Amino acid sequence: MSGVSTAHVYHRTLDPNSQDSLARLARQIRPGSRVLDLGAGPGVLGRYLAEALDCAVDGVEYNPVAVAEAASWYRQLECADLESIALTERFAGQRYDFILCADILEHLRQPGALLAQLPDLLAPNGRVLLSVPNAAYAGLIAELLGGDFRYRPEGLLDETHLRFFTHDSLRRLLEAHGLRAIALETTIMDLNRSEFADQWIDGGWAETLPVEVIRALLDRPEALVYQFIVTAVPANDAGETVVSVPAEATSAAQAALTARLAARMPAVTTMLTVAIVTHAPDLSVLTAMLESLGRALRHASERKLLDRAQLILVDNGPGSGWRESLRQLLDAADLPATVELLSGQGNVGYGAAHNLAFHQGIGEFHLILNPDVLLEEDALSEGLTFLAAHPEVGLVAPAAWDGDGRRQYLCKRYPTVLDLALRGFAPAWLRRGFRNRLDRYELRDRIDDTVLWDPPIASGCFMLCRRAALDQLGGFRPEYFLYFEDFDLSLRLAAVARLVYVPAVRVVHLGGHAARKGVRHVGLFLRAAAMFFNRHGWRWW
Hints:
Layout: H1 21-26, E1 34-38, H2 44-53, E2 56-61, H3 64-70, E3 76-79, H4 87-90, E4 96-102, H5 111-115, E5 122-133, H6 138-145, H7 167-176, E6 179-188, H8 197-201, H9 205-208, H10 211-219, E7 225-234, H11 252-264, E8 268-278, H12 283-302, E9 308-315, H13 323-333, E10 338-342, H14 350-358, E11 363-369, E12 373-375, H15 379-389, E13 393-401, E14 407-408, H16 417-425, H17 428-433, H18 435-441, E15 452-453, E16 462-466, H19 467-473, H20 485-493, E17 498-509, H21 519-536
Parallel strand pairs: 1-2, 1-4, 2-3, 4-5, 8-9, 8-11, 9-10, 13-17
Antiparallel strand pairs: 5-7, 6-7, 11-16, 12-17, 13-14, 13-16, 15-17
Helix pairs in contact: 10-11, 11-19, 12-13, 12-15
């Protein structure tokens, strides 16, 4: 297959309808194409391309046993070492629509030397298709953190692997040798189906590593990515460069594993994690909020509703300028909770910042809280009591008032584009003409002093959640930088648990007045709105 001294032949099958890397590479190749298969092995891919797609296939394979098996499917199959072959000489005059490197680069000492030859062999509009294993897979990293690094006959730590790649290191390698990624796909592998399953299922690092570490490993977009599948073109070709792991890589499988982690390593039954994200906050308002939080935590503790509390404050401000001020403020607050300050990551967005706190948290209950929300003394007691009585509930939304004592309506119906345009951008005189419509959107016909079950959307300023429900979702979708992350979370949460408005849970939301949006915030709002409607469905009127 490559420049290694083993006689091992990798016998694989190709099901063109499957989701493995070989099938996904094959599906990108057009019938009748000219293809160069580097590391052809016993010819599984070459045979399919020749027989099913009528392609003209050439190839290179290092192992003479594999060459003998594969030869009949190739026009020209060279038995040669990919580390030293001069491709333009062996295939002089040929130009290929597709060049394949299916799980090859990891077997080479100097893969860049091979990649550098490929642009000269591509036809106009030709593509390099390659797959490589992901060295940042959660199981591999966890095994290393657990003090082990075991080579195996096959898999991510195949004993013939000489190079290891992450998403970023693969991109840099391509760019350094005249290629540019224009498309990126991934294959996903559950931990319990991987070569690391024994550690996950039967103990080992799954029991010895801190739960926070494992949750952090599973939270990364590439956590369960087993392979990267990349389409590349010569660097001077026009088009967009792909630089990030697709969002869908954070899959349902990943959410299921984090939920399983919570089941295997349960949090303290009566522990609450409070997560707050700040960005250049008003310190006087934040001080008042922390004072109210302290009173609410003590009230719940005194009534035996809460054994322990954890506060995680994420500083999303620029640089580290706020770190010391926030640290001093937290120390002065003297909260009945363990306190952690996460700072220095920059402004990663509201949802992504809350995810940092979420995956550091260990409470059975998780409170998403804005820094401008003041809690009534019994707010947490009422919320925790309701959650304890209703195990089917995943989120409690509060009754809220602004600083002037006017009721706010934090729960909403599913929005239309018109609702959002009126509420966010229309002048007051125009909004008055649509008062009935906006009142309905804000559920004013349903919100009173009685419990309201299953409101479609809850505000992100105060979300008292059951952690098990959030675990199934993996937290917020980080692609929502600002705006609509709470809308999206509410709709996804409703698929796994119930949302409830509980008027006995009372807060004051000082930031509840609508503000005119600057140009940047308008752009962020419109981008997030489009993302939300594209995912959940457009309603115009």
